[in-house]
Design a protein that fits this description.
The chain is an alpha+beta fold. Helices cover 33% and strands 30% of the residues. It has four helices and eight strands; from the N terminus they run ααβββαβββββα. A hairpin with a 5-residue loop joins strand 5 and strand 6. The longest helix has 14 residues.
Length: 138
């Protein structure tokens, strides 16, 4: 009798494992969850124009970090946005050797750590484009 209960329970184990893996795969993440006060600089490179800007102004950093923290990413299988990128962003945090590096491919797609994401919320996409291109929004 006890073995039947164990066997019955084991039948659902693969389904439970699959469900957990799917939830982990599609669980929303944030691009950056650090504090704006810890950020030393933010480099933004425009892939369309080749322009690069390094943001060190505290007010602009706070605006960008708050915006990054408000956007949630969800993994996607839409690889159609692989060709090139719009904006490449590197966030340098004080006291750390590594940077938070991500790419914004379009108004709806981003890449972080070689994983493709679609996102909820809106990046201040046009604001970043204007920063990089000196007021000219392409």
């Amino acid at each position: 009798m006890k073995q039947k209960k164990i066997r019955r329970s084991l039948r659902f184990l693969p389904l439970a494992i699959l469900l957990i893996l799917v939830l982990l795969w599609f669980w929303p993440v944030r691009i950056f969850s650090g504090d704006a006060g810890e950020v030393e600089s933010i480099k933004i490179f425009d892939g369309n124009t080749g322009n690069l800007v390094t943001v060190t102004d505290r007010e602009t950093i706070e605006k960008l970090v708050e915006n990054f923290k408000s956007v949630y990413l969800r993994r996607t299988f839409d690889f159609g946005s692989r060709n090139g990128f719009n904006l490449l962003v590197d966030i340098t945090v004080k006291g750390r050797d590594e940077t938070c590096h991500f790419t914004i491919n379009s108004e709806r797609h981003a890449v972080r750590e070689s994983r493709f994401y679609s996102y909820w919320g809106t990046y201040c996409f046009s604001f970043m484009k204007e920063l990089v291109n000196g007021g000219e929004n392409w």
